[in-house]
Amino acid sequence: MKALLTGGAGFIGRWVVKSLLDDGHEVWVLDDFSNGRKENLADFGNHRNFKKLVIGDIKDTRLLNEIFTSNKYDICFHLAASINVQDSIERPTVTFQNDVIGAFNILEQCKKHHVKLVFMSTCMVYEQACNEEGIDENSPVKPVSPYAGSKLAAENMVMSYYYAYDLPVTIIRPFNTYGPYQKTGGEGGVVAIFIKNKLANKPLQIYGDGTQTRDLLYVEDCARFIVESGYSDKTNGEIINAGLGKDISINDLAKLVAGENGCIKHIKHIHPQSEISKLLCKYSKAQKLLGWEPKYSLEEGIKKTEEWIKSNNHR
Ligand SMILES: NC(=O)c1ccc[n+]([C@@H]2O[C@H](COP(=O)([O-])OP(=O)(O)OC[C@H]3O[C@@H](n4cnc5c(N)ncnc54)[C@H](O)[C@@H]3O)[C@@H](O)[C@H]2O)c1
Fold first, then answer.
1. Would you give the DSSP letter of residue 278?
2. Each residue of 255-296: pLDDT tens digit?
3. Number of domains in the chain
4. What pLDDT score does 185 carry?
5. Is residue 152 part of a domain?
6. Which end of the chain is more exposed for a tag (fewer CB within 10 A), N or C?
7. Using an 8 Å Cβ cutoff, are 138 and 242 in contact?
């Protein structure tokens, strides 16, 4: 299969490239390096099925037309996006342009060339979980940030192409994902930032009171879910969650990373109005449609992430 992966030089994208290559597919990556890194793809540069890294922007419709016309993809995994919730509140235009207009441009190309689209949405579109059953795909959505609003807007456009043009599309909503290759600074995720601070003997900083919970998905489980959503026809026209199926408060996560005697500091939340107090995934639909379930426990995932951050710092 010929696959185009947008955002393939980013954290999750890097693992999707690996999964696609491991499964014997030909891969093209489109990334503008606004948050991605060439080093993330260093392991694959010489792989015979890694066809091309195109450095470019999903807002560049001429470039999109050129690569879709000349390469005749079978499938597009659309991961490129502005991903930072705080940034989206402070600079909504950038997020809107990348996450809505950019997604629309990709959708148009998929329609023109009849390419299946897997659209990467997020759990951040949901309203908080209200019980221990967790959030399923019929749970209410609530766009508490322009990031979530943009993803929902793009999701609606994607689904409209399924109904209006019979385009094979799948919308996936992974929960918060962590693991090796995630940035450890401001653009990173909570697990990577906590580990980095622990290793540097700095306090782990928690926004707000730390009782908010997250369902944390290890990145290799996430990548397997993404590619399998693309391989199956059963997913066409569907919205599908993936997560660990367990949530943990940020206070407990900090203790798990730093140990009981680790130094933890609570600081004022920058945008408390956009916090989601409980995120817990119910992934039974992914299990039923794809036979997918997570393989890595949180403890195993944290260990692998910590080993990677340590070895990466030595390089
Ligand atoms: N990290 C998570 O916890 C998580 C959870 C659910 C969904 N997602 C979604 O998964 C996708 C990947 O997230 P990630 O965490 O790997 O983030 P990331 O920032 O590492 O990856 C996104 C990539 O897209 C690229 N990009 C951004 N704007 C672009 C543009 N205009 N043109 C071309 N490339 C562009 C960036 O350079 C980056 O490499 C995003 O769509 C995000 O919304 C992330």
1. B
2. 999 998 889 999 999 889 889 999 999 999 999 999 999 999
3. 1
4. 86
5. yes
6. C
7. no
- CA-to-CA distance for 26 and 121, rounded, in angstroms? 24
Distance of alpha carbon 197 from alpha carbon 220, whole angstroms:
23
Inside any domain, residue 41: yes
Q: Work out the number of other CB atoms within 10 angstroms of the CB of residue 28.
A: 20
Q: Is residue 49 part of a domain?
A: yes
CA pair distance 110, 121, nearest whole angstrom: 17
pLDDT tens digits for 158-204?
Answer: 999 999 999 999 999 999 999 999 999 877 899 999 999 999 999 99
- Residue 80 Cα to ligand 1 midpoint, Å, equals 5
| Ligand 1 shell residues, CB under 6 Å | 6-7, 9-13, 30-36, 57-59, 79-83, 98, 102, 120, 122, 174, 176-177, 189
Whichever domain contains 232, its CATH number is 3.40.50.720
184 near 309, Cβ under 8 Å?
A: yes
**Residue 6 one-letter amino acid:** T
* CA 34 to centroid of ligand 1, rounded, Å: 9
φ, ψ of residue 52 in degrees (nearest 5): -165, 145
Amino acid residing at 205: Q
275 and 212 in contact (C-beta within 8 Å)?
yes
Ligand 1 probe mutation, 6, 30, 79, most atoms within 8 A of CB: 79
Q: What is the average pLDDT across 45-65?
A: 97
Torsion angle, alpha carbons of 37, 38, 43, 45, to 10: 150
What is the rounded (10 degree) CA torsion for 280, 285, 287, 293? -30
Handedness of CA 44, 49, 55, 58 (dihedral sign): negative
